[in-house]
Design brief:
This is HD domain-containing protein. InterPro entries: HD/PDEase_dom, HD_GYP_dom. There is one protein chain. The protein is an all-alpha fold. The chain folds into 3 domains: 60 residues; 214 residues, Hypothetical protein af1432, CATH 1.10.3210; 116 residues, no CATH class. It contains 18 helices and 4 strands. The strands form 2 sheets. It has a two-stranded antiparallel ribbon with strand order 1-4. Strands 2-3 form a two-stranded antiparallel ribbon. A hairpin with a 5-residue loop joins β2 and β3. α9 packs across α17, α10 packs antiparallel against α11 and α13 runs antiparallel to α14.
């Protein structure tokens, strides 16, 4: 259930967006005791933000507000057209379906609450809105490639468009790429799939498959995802698709990041993603020449190689520490459980690296080898950080003594 009090981060986002677009009360806003706080049609202002702080409401705020000049399917069509006309890394996947995507986007059902959240993202967080458009396009192209019918294709497009909508309730400072996270920060960030799912479930009249898929877009088929660590058949059809959508877009977010980087990221550790969708991205990536891609200078390449080797050393040292703790008679059951799972994940990552055939001992001689080195270096660092944060947050109830025992493991992975 959504909280009765308005989320402070959301309130701040609404107030900031209202300076650029017209957001009004779609209905009278009452507190839990029936006192009217804001009248229908009255524009949002900072005064509303002050009134609502720490007040429990009769109805969720998101259900009471309207963006009168906000994002519509016309805007989505225009932004999708711009994406299709650009030289984006996703082009090999989405361009074959551009006519169908443009036809579908005109008819996407935009619930007023979804429109409100997209409007705030468009106004306050342009990069997040661009991510949503890319997600919509890629999810739609994948659905069309998979032979989905009209209803399922549009549901996939809505999933791509709204999969990160829960991030509107997260402080943007926590979303900075590469920012190291402690346990509390990761727990906070890891709520966004569930927040987005709950918003859709509680406020919007979309099929359950949509919010269920959005809840699972960070899950992995091997059980190493979050927030619920679902595995295999526990991850639904849309969740599997959206996991590949989100990872692919994340791997190609830089201007000079080709689709091959996403293909390698998806295949880095076997069993994480649905092989049907991994195969689609891999085949599209293989059709793109990369000789002109590499714009990195020699110093940057050497830095990446050196950093990757240090990451590999940390993976192996951390694995040894975890194995020792898991077998230590002085460790509690909790410490053994955490250490054993971390050791398994680290071993799996080390095996994946060894199986990749990538070596950082020698400089790359071709553009393909250079790209592989840079991608594997990036993925190793990202996945080691993921294992570290999981070992911090996934098992509440640790004692102070448990924490003290685990500190060397976390330090080895940092």
């Amino acid at each position: 259930m959504l909280p009765e009090s308005a989320n402070s981060q959301f309130l701040s986002e609404v107030s900031r967006a209202s300076a650029s677009c017209r957001i009004v009360a779609g209905s009278d806003i009452y507190d839990q005791y029936g006192a009217k706080l804001w009248a229908r049609h009255q524009p949002v202002s900072q005064s509303l933000q002050q009134k609502l702080l720490d007040r429990k409401l009769k109805a969720p705020l998101e259900a009471c507000l309207l963006a009168e000049d906000g994002v519509t399917t016309v805007h989505l069509y225009e932004h999708l057209t711009l994406l299709l006309d650009s030289a984006h890394a996703l082009a090999p996947v989405i361009l074959p379906y551009q006519r169908e995507l443009l036809d579908h986007v005109r008819s996407l059902p935009l619930h007023p609450a979804a429109q409100l959240l997209l409007t705030i993202a468009h106004t306050n967080r342009p990069a997040a809105f661009a991510h949503a458009i890319e997600g919509m396009a890629l999810a739609g192209a994948m659905a069309l490639h998979g032979g989905y019918d009209r209803v399922r294709t549009r549901l996939a497009m809505l999933g791509g468009l709204l999969h990160d909508i829960g991030e509107m309730y997260i402080d943007p400072d926590y979303l900075e790429a590469g920012r190291p996270l402690d346990a509390e920060m990761f727990r906070y960030l890891a709520t966004h799939p569930l927040l987005g799912a709950e918003l859709i479930r509680s406020l919007m009249d979309y099929p359950p498959a949509l919010w269920q898929g959005i809840a699972q877009h960070h899950e992995r088929l091997c059980g190493t995802g979050y927030p619920a660590m679902c595995a295999d058949k526990e991850v639904g059809e849309l969740g599997r698709l959206l996991a590949v959508v989100d990872t692919t877009i994340g791997a190609t977010h830089a201007a000079d990041a080709p689709l091959q980087r996403a293909s390698l990221a998806l295949r880095m550790v076997p069993g994480e993603y649905d092989p049907v969708w991994v195969g689609l991205i891999a085949r599209a990536a293989a059709s793109v020449p990369i000789a002109a891609f590499m714009a990195y200078d020699g110093a940057e390449i050497e830095q990446a190689r050196s950093s990757a080797q240090a990451t590999i050393d940390r993976i192996r040292a951390s694995q040894q520490r975890c194995v020792q703790l898991a077998s230590d008679a002085g460790s509690s059951d909790m410490v053994r459980k955490i250490s054993d799972r971390a050791a398994q994940l680290l071993a799996r990552l080390d095996v994946a690296y060894r199986s990749s055939g990538i070596s950082f001992a020698y400089p790359a001689e071709t553009a393909e080898e250079m790209l592989e080195q840079l991608t594997v270096a990036r993925e190793l660092a990202v996945r080691l950080e993921k294992i570290r944060t999981e070992s911090l947050w996934s098992t509440p109830g640790r004692t102070a003594m448990d924490e003290e025992k685990l500190v060397p493991v976390w330090q080895a992975m940092a």
